[in-house]
User: Fold this.
Amino acid sequence: MKRITFLLLLLNIVAIAQQKMTWPKNKKAVIVLTYDDALASQLDVAIPQLDAARLKATFFLTGYITDKTIPRWRAAGAKGYELANHTLYHPCLGKEIKGSSPENLTENYTIPAIIREIRMMNNFLFAVGGKVNRTYAYPCTETKVGGSSYVDSLRKTGLIQYARIGGDGRDMITDFTKLDPMLVPSWGVAENTPGIKLVDFVKRVEKSGGMGVFMFHGIGGDYLTTSAEAHKELLDYLQKHRNDILVMTFEQAMDYVSQANKMIAATNKGR
Assistant:
């Protein structure tokens, strides 16, 4: 009898663990479009295309925005685009940014230094867009400075709600109960990725019933460039299939996931 009870309990736990996320408005999946480094091509190409498709996205900005671009980013924030934290100076390992000055290399940073930089960028973004809550993307997808992880230190500060890391296109999210909100995987889109491959990722996410996060850089220009045509092909597909696929900002998507996980935890506690 005890063995049967244990097996039933185990099957119940497995069923809960494998349960797919229920998305708003009965959507089949969620896609999050994110763009790094506050690039001119994002203002000139990506945002006009997103406006035309009536889709919203997240832009991870650095402190290199200027008096010429700040008004444009402020206008984007006013339209509902998320302006998020990507540090002031975008530090990376020396092997990632050869020729950079030593003070901008993560191997020369300390954890207090990177936390201070993130805090200051939060203040900068508040001045630009007026929002308090903030999400974050690790520069160069690196979670370490000076050889040590700063993920838990950043978590404890409460400066950041959710943080995005990188991935290779296989990192769609389906098991949300195990998702660390400070280590949310994304697909770092490579240079000249064709539109058909971008759409294929969306189709695989839709089939999984999960969430897929894109990490873009240049759109039709700058570096790590996705062509304007490929980007538009992706947006056209998302617009055409908006009855099945929900496009959200990073903050919106993670807010929804966090609330759903709390409800699941509360339900499990009451069993």
